[in-house]
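Sequence, structure tokens passed on for absentees:
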Amino acid sequence: MTILEAASCEAPIMLRDLDLYKVILEGNYRPTTDVEEMKEAILEYREHPEALKALKEKAKAISREYSEEHLLEIWLKFYREQAAFRKNEVVYANWIIYRYLFPTGFGCCKPVFEP
């Protein structure tokens, strides 16, 4: 949560080099192995403000990726896909039951519905 708060303020993100961060943040931060490397990175950013600016842009990317609006879009898409899948499952199941109960159609009519 702290990382997301920092990113929403467009603060440059520097973290320990852990696999967890690699997967979640997809390279939008500066990985470091220890305190000494962090110190060196800070001094490097002081000498090269354009690199610091690029790191701040990466923080913006994190903020957009985990914004309330973007997460809402992701969850809505997921639930719509699940609802469509379930609807198709029910339609297909009904068709199977219908074909089992009425293999030649219903009365004088042939089945016209095919999924």
